[in-house]
Predict the 3D structure of the following.
Amino acid sequence: MAPSAGTRDVVDVVLGFARTLRHAGVGASPDRVEAMLQAVGHLDVLDATDVYWAGRLTLCASPDDLDRYDAAFAAYFAGEAPRTPRTSAQQEQRMAESAPLSASDPGGGEESAEAPDLKAAASEDEVLRTRDVSELSIAERDQLRRLFALLVPAAPMRPSRRRRPDLHGQVHPGRTVRRALRDGGEITRLQHRRARPRPRRVVLLVDVSGSMSPYADALLRFAHAAVRARPASTEVFTIGTRLTRVTREMRLRDPDKALAASGHAIPDWSGGTRIGEVLKAFLDRWGQRGTARGAVVVLCSDGWERGGTELLAEQMRRLHRLAHSVVWVNPHKGRVGYEPLTGGMQAALPAVDHFVAGHSLAAFEQLAGVIERA
C-alpha cells in the first residue's frame, strides 16, 4: 500500500533535516535516519519538543554532535531548539536514557498552543535554498545567513609524494626485509605503503564591485565557510579596482565579525571593475610565487570589465597554466536564458574549466561539489 500524503511529508522533512545535519558535520547515517522516522511515527510531529528529542537521541553519535545538532535544528525549523532546563549531568543522562518514544505526552501535560508548524518551516527553507539572494527580503536574508553557517565545503585532495604504511598498495621492500629478519629470515608477510592524499589549496577571488554588490555578501559568506573548513589551505582575495587579501579577516570564527572586518579592509567596495589589471597584480605578487600553482582558483564575478579584454584574456591563459583548475562563478548564470555576451566573459571563458552559477544557496552547494571534485 502506498504511503499517505501526510506520511510522505514527514519523510521528506526528516530526510531534508538529515541532509542539513550532514552539511553541519553530523554523520546522520541512513540507519540513524530510519530510527528517527520510526521514533516520530509514534509522536506528535507538530510538537517541536518531541521532534527535537527524537532527532537528538537517534541522529547524534557523540557529545561533539550536540551543539551542531542544536544549530541545525534551529536553522532548519526556523526557531530556537527547544531545551529542557539542565539540573545536573546525572539527571540529563537519565533523561536521555528514558526519553519516551511512544505516543504518550512525555510531560503529561497539554500540547503547546504555540508549537511551530515544522512542515511549513522546513518547506520554506527548501524554497529559500533556491531563491536568488538579490531578491530576498531582510528577514529572508537573516534566515539565509543561518543556513550559510551550516555549509561545510569539502576540500579537493591531491596525491602526496610522501608514502605511509598501509594494508594495501605498493610493497615496501625495506620494511618487508626488516620484518623478515625479526621472524628468523622468513618472509611471512609483505609490508605495503601508499601515498596519502593531502588537501589542495583553494584560492577565491571575489568581485566586490558595484555590479556585484547584491551578491557580495553571499559570496563572502561562502568564502568564510571554505576558510572555516580548511583554514591552512584556503586563500581569499577581493577584486574590483584593486586587489585585497582578506584571508586573515576570514579566519575569524563568527561570520558576521569576519565580514565586518573584511569590509573595513576593502578600500574599493562597490567601486569599478578592472579584472584584467587586478588578476595580473595577483599573479605577479601571489600566484607566480606559489599561491595559484597547482591550486583550485575560483573567480566570482559577473564579467563586467572596464579595462581591456585583451589583458584579461592574456592573464586568464596565464592563470590556467599555473592552476590545477579554474572555476568561474557568475551569479547571472542561474537566470533563465542567460548567455555570456559581455566582453569580459567571452575573453575569460576559453581559459575556464568550470563555469557555474552563484545566485542561491543551492548553487553554492553545487559549487562546493565542483571544487571538491576538481
User: Anything to note?
Assistant: The chain has three domains: 5-83+91-97+114-130, 160-195, 200-373. The two ends are 44 Å apart (CA to CA). DSSP finds 15 helices and eleven strands in the chain.
